[in-house]
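Appendix B. Chain record.
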Amino acid sequence: MNDSKRSTLGQTSHPEAPVSDREAVRITQHENVPELVAFIIALQMGRRISTDKAARLLEHMVKEQMSTDAGLIADQMRSDHWEADLSDGETLIVLAQRALGYLATDDGVALFNFFVKTFAGTSGDMFD
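Structure tokens predicted for this chain:
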């Protein structure tokens, strides 16, 4: 990643003290996170999902350690009712593979690390 396009994730002013899980969700679902928007675009869906839904998927990927398994990611998408957002010809497994492809990029790594650091800083149990 060149310096002119360096990620700003992690440079936000969230506190060093533990935060609640609710606050961590609020931080990660912030609409102005360019890497989250880029993640949504990388999914190449005919009808884009919301940033909230994308953030929730990434939260599950972090909490349930499913960041390298497209099958588990597709199952989580199914649990979160992503099928309702699919256009003709789209499948959850293909979306999961695209998600993994984005997360293998510099911006994707920065986004995933942002979620890991944010949820690792919660004051309680990371799991729902």
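Further analysis of this model is presented in Appendix C.
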